[in-house]
Structures are given as structure tokens and as C-alpha cells.
Amino acid sequence: MHSKKGHGGLERLSTYIFRYVAKLHGNGTLRGRIEATSALHAKQRVMQSNELIKDAHISLLKNQASARKNDFEGIKQ
Asked: What's the superkingdom here (predicted)?
């Protein structure tokens, strides 16, 4: 991954939009989109967001420009 220069000379990692399907304890799934720097970071964010999640499948969305036009869970700055 490459980093870009942000405002004030601070380096900021590139972020990507990932799709996730999270399996819940018992029967059920959650689906959504999340912004993260890597697939591992995306999985960690999904797992931490809800105590009922026991596993999550993460996949990178190929068309990032289109993905950013739709709703997703962004990174708080």
C-alpha cells in the first residue's frame, strides 16, 4: 500500500471500501460495507462493532469509485 501526503504534511494511509458478511451467534448474518486500510483492518473493525458477531467474511470491492458513491461505514478521524 502506498501512503499519500495529507494536509499539514501528515502521512495518511490509502483506504479502500470492503464488503462484509458477518455471521452472528445463533442464526443470522449482517451485511454491509466498511472503509479500511486493509482486509485485516476491515475484519477487526467489523468484529469490534458488535459483540454478537462470531466471524466475518471480507472482500474488496473492485470498483472503488462506484463503491464510494454508496453508503458505507467510514473511518472516524
From this structure: Bacteria
- Taking the CA atoms of 12, 14, 20 and 26 in sequence, report the sign of the dihedral they define: negative
Average pLDDT rounded to a whole number, residues 59-69: 96
pLDDT digits (tens, 9 = 90+) for 11-34: 667 999 999 999 999 899 999 999
Smallest CA-to-CA distance from 58 within 75, 37, 27 is with 37
Q: 65: which residues sit within 8 A by CB, 6+ positions away?
A: none
What the block records as the C-alpha cell of 60 is 474488496
| Residue 56, burial from CB neighbour count under 10 angstroms (0-12, 13-18, 19+) | buried
Compute the distance between CA of residue 73 and CA of residue 30 in angstroms, rounded to an integer. Answer: 13
* Stated pTM of the model: 0.80
Residue 42 backbone phi and psi in degrees, to 5: -60, -45
